[in-house]
Amino acid sequence: MDERNLSVVSEFMLLGLCQSWNKQVLLLLIFFMLYLIIVSGNIAIMVLIITDSHLHSPMYFLLANLSFVDMWLCSVTTPKMIIDFVRENKTISFGGCMCQILFVHFVGGGEMVLLVVMAYDRYVAICKPLHYSTIMNLQKCIGLVVTSWTIGFVHAMSQMAVIVQLPFCGPREIDSFFCDIPLVIKLACIDSYNLGILMNADSGVLAMTCFNQ
Fold this sequence. Notes:
Blueprint lengths: L10 E4 L6 H31 L6 H27 L6 E3 H34 L4 H4 L2 H26 L9 E2 L6 H5 L7 H20 L1
Parallel strand pairs: 1-3
Antiparallel strand pairs: 1-2
Helix pairs in contact: 1-2, 2-3, 3-5, 3-7
């Protein structure tokens, strides 16, 4: 009778950046200040572009979207990391861990494509200045931004479709301050070597495609 009484992992333990209390307090202050600067800076950029009619151009429209993406990308894991600096038990629920993975790849993938869109915008402005206003109109810009979010969502869901089905029954310690896919799949109760290569290849294809553009 081949039966295994596998316990379901309901939460993971994040080991964080260090174990020293003094270092954690110092890191808390540093990262909290950096987080405030990043968020407030990106909000200031978006408000300035929206309120100043002189900045209502494709380049600044894309820049505002990049600021929006950057603000959310740093908000996926940083607040949790800052809170954990003052917590003895740095745990995260299974659902919370999956949400981190989903949004990191969703927003991160969208940002990669958005940077390609911004590069294309500058290419048109430099190489085809007389046709720039026709090619990069508002509808085209909105379509490109929606495309970047769509590609990021598809990329994130392709990762999630695999990882949520993995059986987690053994160790639950993640040697990081957030749920990183390569570290999480190592905790699955299966041989994760080939799966790790597949997941890295998925992310690599998106990154290299954007880089080659």
